Amino acid sequence: MTPVYLDNNATTRTDPAVVAAMLPYFTEQFGNASSMHAFGAEVGSALNKARKQLQALIGAEFDHEIVYTSGGTESDNAAILSALETQVGRDEIITSAVEHPAILTLVAHLEKSRGIKVHIIGVDARGHIDMEAYRKALGPKTAIVSIMWANNETGTIFPVEQLAELAHEAGALFHTDAVQAVGKIAINLAESEIDMLSLSGHKLHGPKGIGALYVRKGTRFRSLIRGGHQERGRRGGTENAPGIVGLGAAAELALAFMDDENSRVAALRDRLEKGLLQRIGSSFVTGDPDNRLPNTANIAFEYIEGEAILLLMNRDGIAASSGSACTSGSLEPSHVLRAMNVPYTAAHGAIRFSFSRENGDADVDHVLEAMPPIIEKLREMSPFWRERDVRTEVFNPTYA
Amino acid sequence: MWEYSEKVKDYFFNPNNSGTMEDASGVGDVGALSCGDALRLMIKVDEPSQTITDAKFQTFGCGSAIASSSALTELIIGKTIEEALVLTNQDIADFLGGLPPEKMHCSVMGYEALHAAVANYRGETWVDDHEEGALICKCFGIDEGMIERTIRGNNLTSIEEITNYTKAGGGCSTCAESLETILDRVNTDMVADGSIQQEEAFSLTAYVRPNKKKIVNLDEKPKGPLTTLQKIRLIEETIEAIRPSLQRDGGDCELVDVDGNRVMVKLIGACVGCHLSGATIDGVQARLVEAVGVPLIVVPVTQYH
Asked: Which residues does chain B have within 8 Å of residue A304's beta carbon, measured at their own beta carbons?
C-alpha cells in the first residue's frame, strides 16, 4: 500500500532537489558568511542568491527586504513586537479570530503582561473577515494589524491588500502571516501596501527550521533576536546557511510549479471534494469554496469525532489532519471552525485534506474508496447518529 | 501522534459490545458534544442476583474514548453491581495497558457512565461533581474550582503543594503559568480575609517565592562522609517518607538493594506499568539525592535478585 500524504498544510516533503542544493553547505561550503576569507565569501554569495530566489517568489521590490528567521512563528513574533516598539504612542493590536496560534497566543500574552489592547475581529460562516468591525477597530492607537493571507485550516483567502490600505489610512502598520499562501498563490508585494510578511520554508517543500520576514524598505524595524550584525542587524545569530540555500531553492521550484498548483492540483482537490460529498451524506465543505487556496479542502463529517477518523484513515495509509479537540489534547475543537459558527456536531469531525504538487490521481482514487466505510463504521458507534433528526442546534449547512 | 498501547489500538479498531440494547435495565449518558466526548452505556441487570449480564455502548469520541468504552463493558459484564461500582477509571486505563496522560479523561468518562447507568437502573439521578470553571490541568482533568477549593481548604502557598494535593501540573506542566495565576489570586484573597499571612502568600511579583522547605540546621549535618550503614538508613528513611504519597494513588515503592550509588527500588500496585512511573522514579531520585547529599541513581527493578 503506497501511503497517501494529504497533510501538506502541516508540512511538506523537502524536495530532493532542495536537499541536493543544501548538502554542500554542510561539509564543503561550511564557512561563516561573516568571515574574511574564501570560505566565508562563498557562503555569503549563496545567501544572496537565495534572497533573490525568494524575492522573485513574493514579488518584493528589493532583495534586502527579506530577513531570514527560524520560521513562521519567529517571523510573526518579530513583526508584532517590533511594531509595538516603533509605533510610539500606539498600543493596540488588531487581528482576526482565525489566526494561527503563533499570533493568537502572542497577542493574548501581550494583553495580559503589557496591557496591550487587542481587537479580535470575527469572521462569517464562510470565514470572511467582518469588514465593518475591522474599520471600527482601526484608530489612532492602532500600532499594527496582523491578518493572515490564507487560513491554514479552511484555505480561505483574506483581502490583505485592501486591509493593508485601510490600516495605513489609520497610520497603523500591516503584517500578514502568509505561511500558507506563499508558494501556493501568486504574491506581488511591490504592488501592495503590506509592510511585513511571514513565510516558512517547510510549507513549500523546503527544510524545517528556516523562514523569513519580509520588511518593506523604509519600515522602521526593531530586532527580536539581538546579537551580531547579521541580516543588517535585524536578526542576530550566524546564518543557517544550508537552510537558507534550501529555502531559496524551494522558492525557485515553487515559482516554477505555480501554474501546476493552480490548475492540476486544484482539479485533484475538487475531484476529491465532490466525490466525498457525493458518497457520504451529512457532510459539507467548510470555508469559502470560491475563494481559497487551490490545495485545501476542509470537510466536516457530522456526528463523529476527527481523531477517530484519522486513526482509521492512517490504518488505510492516508495522512490528513483534523480540527478535532482530541488531536491537540485540548477539549475545544478548532478555534477557526468555532469562529465560523460551525456547530460542535460537525466541528469535531472536520477533516482537512491538503494537497501538493507531489499528489496525483491515484491518491484521490484511494481516498474516495477508503473514506465511506470509515465514516459509516464510526457513525454506527455514535450515539448522535441515530438521533440526528432531533438535533437542536440552529444550523443548516448546504450539502452538495 | 499519540502513543497508544497496542491494546488501545486493538480495542479501537475492533471494539467489543458496540451497539444498542432494546431492553436495557439502565442507561447512562455522560459527556457532551461540545467537549468532543460522549458515551451512552446500556446495561442489563439480572434482578435477583444483581449481576450485570450484558452491556453495550455507543461513543462519540476519539480512539481512546472508544477503546475505554469497550474496555468498560468487558470489565463489568459478569460482575454484580456492587463489584462493578468498585472499579476506578485507573482500572479501565490499566486494562488497556495505560493511556497517555492527556487521554486519562476518557477513562474517567467510562467510570462516570457506569455510575450514571447504575443510578438510572436504581431510579436515581446521577450528578457529576466536576466541570467548574475552566479545565486547567488537562493531563489529570483538574478544573479551576477544584484547585481553588484545595488551595483554600489546605492553606496552600506553593505550586509544588498544589501538585501534591491535586496532581494538577504533575503531567506535561503546560498549565504552570495558569496555576501561578490562580494561586496568586486566591492567596491575595486569603490574605485579605485573614486566613494566611502576607509573608506566606505566593506572589507573582515577589522576587523570591515563599519557600516552605524546612530550614536545615547546618550544624546538625553529620560530619564527614556517611558510613555505608548511615547512607542505607538515610535512604530507607527517605523512601518510607515518600511511600504515603504513592499509596494515596494506589501505588507503592520498596527499597530492594543499595550498590554503591545505585539504589534499586521495586514499584508496586498502580505504579506498575503506569505511564508516569518514569516521573515517579525521577521524583524518588531527587528526594534521595537531597536527603543523602551524594549523587545517586534510582533503578527500578521488577524482581528481587
From this structure: 60
